[in-house]
Amino acid sequence: MTATTRRIKRVLDHTVDDASAAAAHAARSAERAARHLAEQVGEGTDLARERLHDAADATGMQVRRAGRHAAHVARRHPWWTVGLGVAALAVVAAAALRSSARHR
Prior knowledge:
- The protein is an all-alpha fold.
- It has one domain.
- The chain is 95% helix and 0% strand.
- Helix 1 (3-76) packs across helix 2 (78-102).
- It starts with a helix and ends with a helix.
- This is DUF3618 domain-containing protein.
């Protein structure tokens, strides 16, 4: 083997070693980035779950409050409540009749 061939072989070996080290470094960096992303997604999911539970609790509280208020109004104004119920029934009946007339 000539000196030039040995030098070329040495340079190629060095280049392969550098490429191998760069690939290993890239793999470690990608693994760290993937772990970091997974942590962020997990934290985001936990936060979204918390907010959803808070919204559900607040909505439940508002629904109960509205129900109490409706019951209070119905007790204080029974005939008004009956009239409102009849009006709502008339609107639903008219919509149902109109919808059934369209499908004929």
